[in-house]
Specification:
binds beta-D-galactopyranose, disordered N terminus, 2 domains, 421 residues, 37% strand, alpha+beta, four-stranded antiparallel β-sheet, single chain
């Protein structure tokens, strides 16, 4: 059995406000534990769910999660609530059974278990019950809060604009929507089909600025091949576009982000003619200062992690939106020499339909877990693209992405559980 603890993060939420300029809402509120009034607001939904179940019409897991989120936040889930209709038609003799089940299901452990499961490939709702829009994204950790930034490909965005959304979490499983931090119209006159992809945010401790890098492109296909830089005074404020450039004069398409254990910040970028490069950011992070290594492999979606004295780099082949067998290599130093690239998963499974975007290390009190964060792209319905987050089997120069299945993470201990269904 996996043990889940509802985290008390009042101090964390207080600290983060300093940077965020906004109060933490659902994440911090939820982390304070169940309040009686919230239990009361959940009970009718659970009872109604029991009745619906008894009537043979079980809501989907996504709908259940969405309803839990909605109950927590006292907001209606999107669209008509299908759980309420069978309530009227339910036979009265089901009531005691449902009441008991409802009370059991609202115990803190049951609720936490339902909410803290990470389901690779499933719709991942935010605190509003809306699918998280953070594709090709990256994670920034600050004062105990995780911020997930990524491409917001909502169908409701203005067609001329490209958007980046920001979400916050204290457990990497439940995410609170914070803000659409970028909503930008073609700043370099790249044409109708311009792109702003793979945004990554760094926090610069010297300037206290948040600096975002993203791939900006569009003219004549992907020929602009540059990075766009944005800055902001708060983590989830409106990021201001500064400029675009080619890092160290090189073509740059897919971007990866890496902050080493010593705090040094690096950009990984794909340079089509040569391979992919790892480069160090300048002191203020506003430019790319120095190349650390050029890996001659033609890989994109580059991501790095430092684990037990070894660097592991992962990347995907250049097949656009179509998944391919992602590969990894290791080195004792970022500058190399790097090992040969090996398969991260059975090659015929094409990384289980995903593409790498980040490797994230959770250093807990008991163990360290490295998470593979990937995108499952849906090019025709991009707003419905999904995420594949899975803990990696890693160590001794080997890294393996196991068959995706639901899992749980306890960030305080670093422990992972697989008993979720
Ligand atoms: C992928 C890349 C994505 C996007 C896509 C467009 O290879 O990783 O970020 O650029 O190509 O085809």
């Amino acid at each position: 059995m996996w043990a889940l603890r509802w985290q008390s993060s009042g101090a964390v939420a207080g600290l983060s406000r300093r940077h965020a300029g906004l109060p933490l809402d659902a994440g911090a509120r939820a982390a304070r534990g169940l309040r009686t009034s919230k239990i009361m607001s959940i009970i009718p939904r659970v009872l109604a769910g029991c009745v619906q179940f008894a009537n043979g019409a079980r809501p989907s897991r996504a709908q259940q999660r969405s309803n839990w989120h909605a109950a927590l936040n006292r907001r209606k889930p999107p669209g008509p609530n299908p759980l309420l209709r069978p309530w009227l038609a339910a036979p009265l003799n089901l009531f005691p059974l449902c009441a008991a089940a409802g009370l059991l299901a609202t115990a803190p452990g049951a609720r936490a278990a339902e909410l803290l499961v990470i389901r690779p490939g499933a719709v991942w709702p935010d605190d509003r019950g809306q699918p998280i829009q953070a594709h090709g994204g990256g994670i920034l950790q600050l004062d105990g809060v995780y911020y997930w930034f990524g491409e917001d490909r909502s169908a409701t965005n203005a067609p001329s604009h490209r958007c980046v959304a920001c979400y916050a979490s204290t457990n990497l499983a439940q995410w609170t929507f914070r803000h659409q931090v970028v909503r930008l119209a073609d700043p370099e006159h790249l044409g109708r089909r311009w792109v702003l992809e793979r945004p990554k945010v760094f926090f610069n401790d010297q300037t206290k600025k948040f600096v975002m890098y993203a791939h900006i492109d569009g003219r004549g296909g992907y020929q602009f091949a540059s990075v766009a830089v944005f800055t902001c005074d708060t983590v989830d404020g409106d990021y201001v576009y500064q400029r675009s450039f080619r890092p160290l004069g090189h073509e740059s398409r897919d971007l990866g982000q890496f902050v080493d254990d010593d705090g040094a910040a690096y950009l990984i970028f794909e340079d089509r003619p040569f391979g992919f490069r790892i480069a160090k950011l300048s002191g203020d992070y506003l430019t790319v200062e120095r190349e650390i290594c050029l890996l001659p492999e033609h890989l994109e979606g580059g991501a790095l992690v430092h684990y037990q004295g070894l660097y592991y780099v992962v990347g995907s082949a250049l097949t656009g939106w179509s998944p391919n067998p992602n590969k990894y290599a290791t080195a004792k130093s970022l500058a190399g020499p790097w090992s040969e690239f090996k398969d991260l998963a059975p090659p015929d499974r094409h990384t289980y339909g995903s593409q790498s975007t980040m490797l994230w290390k959770v250093t807990g009190a008991k163990t360290t877990t490295v998470i593979f964060m990937g995108d499952i792209w849906k090019p025709q319905t991009q707003w419905d693209s999904r995420y594949l987050w899975m803990p990696l089997q890693i160590g001794g120069g080997k890294m393996w992405l196991p068959e995706p299945k639901p899992w749980t993470l306890e960030v305080k201990t670093g422990e992972v559980g697989f008993d979720a269904n």
